[in-house]
Amino acid sequence: GAGADNDLYINQAIVFIEDAIQYRSINHRVDSKSLWLYRWYYSRTCQWILSLTITVILALAFVEEPSSLTITSDVRYRLPAWNPPCGLMESVELLCFLVFVVDVSVKSYLIGWKEFWKNKWLMAYILTLIVSLADWIVSLSFFCKESVRIRRILRPFFLLQNSSMMKKTLKSINSTLPEMASVLLLLAVHLSLFTMFAMLLFARTKDNQQDKEWVVYFRNLPDSLTSLLVLLTTANNPDVMIPAYSKNRAYSIFFILFTVLGNLFLMNLLTAIIYNQFRGYLLKSVQSSLFRRRLGIRAAFEVLSSLKETPASAQQSFVSVGALLQVLQKAEMDSRCKQAIMRSLKMCSCDQLSAAQFQKLFEELDKDAIKQHPSSPEYQSHFMQKVQFAFGHPYFGYLGNVVALANIISICVVLVIDADKQPSERDDFFLGAINCFFILYYLLEMLLKILAMGLKRYLSYPSNRFDGLLTVILLILEIATFAVYGFPHPGWRPEFMGLLSLWDMVRLVNMLIVFRFLRIIPNMKFMALVVTTLLDLVKNLRAFAGILAVVFYAFAITGIMLFKGAVVPLGNTRKKNVILWCSAQVELIYCFLFVLSVHLICRWAKIYFVAWWLISSVIWVNLFVALLLENFIHKWDRRCQRESLSDIEYQRTVELMFRDVLEEPTEEELMEKLHQHPHLHLCR
C-alpha cells in the first residue's frame, strides 16, 4: 500500500544520506530487506568486528613460527620464542577467514550480480580468500611444517580492501608510476655511468697495497654497483671513499660529483615530480568523492519527492520539510551537522524544498568543523574579577613557560655536574628539591588557571589538557617518592625499595618535566602551524600510513621466508667467525646486514633490499613529503587569509583541503548517473 511505499522511500533516503556522509557509492540494492542488511553491515558493531578480525589476522605473524618475538633481538642472548602447537593459530586463522567470507558474501549480494563483475576489488578479495584457504589446507596436511606459506604475504590485502581511501590512494600512486619511472630510469643511468667510471678509476694495479679501494668496493661489476647504490643512500659515506682519498685527494672529486648529481638533483627532482603529479591524481580522487556525496544527496531528494503525501508537479519536484525531519531523526550523522540542518529548516518559512534548497542544506557536511570554547565564569566580586583578569591573561601563560624553561635548565645543570659521578657518589637532594619546588608551582598554576577560566573552558583547550594531565602525574609520582623514600635532604641516597629505586623515580619525573616543556608550542605561532600540520597528517592521512603498513608487512613476511636462520647464535661453529668479527667491530644491526648481504646469502638477495629501498625510502618517503608540503602550503595560505580567532578551532579533513578548487557537479550529470542506477528506478 501507500504506507509501505512511503516507509520504503524514507528508508532509501536515510541510506542515501548516510552514503553521502561517508562518500560511499549508492549503487547497491534498495529493497526493504537489502536496506536493513546494508545498514546492519555498515553499523559500528559490524565494522568493529571486521576491523578486529583484520587486526588479529595481521598480528598472527608475531606469534607464528618462525617468529622471533622476544624481549631482546640480540641472537646471542634471546631465549627461544614461543612456538604454538600446530592447529592453534590455524584455528584462529580459520575464524578470521569465515568472517571474511561473510564480509565478501554480503558485499557481493548488496551490489548485485552485474556490479559484481565490474568490481575488481571484490573479485580479487574472493581470489585471495580461495588461495589463502587452499594454502591453509596444505599447511594442515603437512602438520604445519612447510617452509613457505603464501597466505601470509596475502594478509595485508584484507586491510587494503577494507578502506576506500586506501584504494583511492593506491590508484593515485599507480597513476603516478609512469612519471616516477622516468626519473628512476635517469637515476639508473646515472648509477650505471658512474659505476663504469669507478671500475676504470679504481682498477687493479701491480701494487697490492694501493688497491684497497678495488679490493673492498670495486672488485667487479655487482660490487661496484652495490657500493655506489649504497652511497646514494649515504649509508657508507665517507667509508667508501677513504681508501681512494688516502691514496690521492683528487679522487674525492668523483664521489662529490656522484653525490651532488644523485642526491641533490635527481632525488629532489623525483620529489618535485611526485608532488606535481600525485597532487593532481589525489585531487581527482577527492573530486570523485565530492560527486558521490552530491549524488547521494540528490538520490535522497528524488526518492523523498516520490512520497504519496508530496504534491505532484509537472515542472519541478519538491520534498516536504516533515519528511526530511523524519529522515534526519533516523539517519546516523554527526550531531553538529544534524543540529545545523535542523536549525536551517526551522528558520525556513516554506513547507517544501526544491532540489537546490535540499542540496544547499546538506552543504553543512562540507564545512569546517568549528569548536567554540565555553565562556569563562562571571564573578561578582571585584577582587575575583581582578584575579580572573591576572591569571587568565596570556602573560601568565608566558610566565609559566619561563618557569618551565628554568626547570629544564636546572635539570641540565645538575645532570652535567653528576655526569661522571658513580651512583654511590651521587646526591639526589638537589634534583629532588628542584623537582619538588617546580611541581608545586605547576600545581598552583593549574589551579589558578581553572579558577580564572572555569573547568570546562580550561579542559576545552588541548594544551591545557596536556599540561594538566602531566601535572597530575608528576604530583602523584612526587607523593609516591616521598611516601617511599622520605623528603629530600643532603645525602639523600636511600636503599632500593618498592618497584623503582629513588634514582629511577627521579629520572621518570625529570623525563615527564622535559616532555611537559612542549606546552610552549601553542604560544609560538609558526611552530604551532608546523605541529598542527603534522597532527592533521596523522588524523586525516591514515590511508597513507595503512599502505605503508601493508608494504612493511609484506616485505617483513617475505624477508622471514627468505632469510630464516641466516643469523645464528654463537654456538654455531660453521658461521661463528663471522658473528664474532661483527660483534667486535660494529653494532649488531650492521652486523646483521653485513652477514645477510655478503656471507650467508646469495647475491640475488640484494634485489630484495634494493626493492625495499626503492619502495619504502625513495617512492613512499617522497609521497609523504609531497603531501606534507601540500598540507602545509594549504594551512599557510589559510593562515594568511584568515585572522586567528582565539576561541575557535578549525578542523580540516583531506576532502576539505581541496574544497576551494573542487568543481560542483551539474544537475544533468547527477540525473544521468541516477538513471544509470542498477536497482533504483526513478519516476522522472
How is this structure best described in words?
The chain is globular, with a radius of gyration of 32 Å. It folds into 5 domains: 1-166, no CATH class; 172-285, Helix Hairpins; 303-372, no CATH class; 382-523, Four Helix Bundle (Hemerythrin (Met), subunit A), CATH 1.20.120; 533-654, no CATH class. Strands 1-2 form a two-stranded antiparallel sheet. It has a two-stranded antiparallel ribbon with strand order 3-4. It has helices at residues 2-21, 32-41, 44-59, 88-111, 113-118, 120-141, 150-154, 156-161, 164-201, 212-216, 221-232, 242-247, 252-304, 321-330, 335-347, 355-361, 382-392, 394-417, 429-453, 455-459, 462-485, 502-516, 525-540, 542-563, 576-585, 588-600, 605-641, 654-657, 667-675; strands spanning 319-320, 352-353, 369-372, 648-651. The protein has 29 helices and 4 strands. Residues 572-601 and 643-652 have low confidence and may be disordered. The chain is an all-alpha fold and 684 residues long. One of its GO terms (cellular component) is monoatomic ion channel complex. Its main location: membrane. GO terms for molecular function: calcium channel activity; intracellularly phosphatidylinositol-3,5-bisphosphate-gated monatomic cation channel activity; ligand-gated sodium channel activity; voltage-gated channel activity. It is found in: Late endosome membrane; Lysosome membrane. Belongs to the calcium channel alpha-1 subunit (TC 1.A.1.11) family. Two pore calcium channel subfamily.
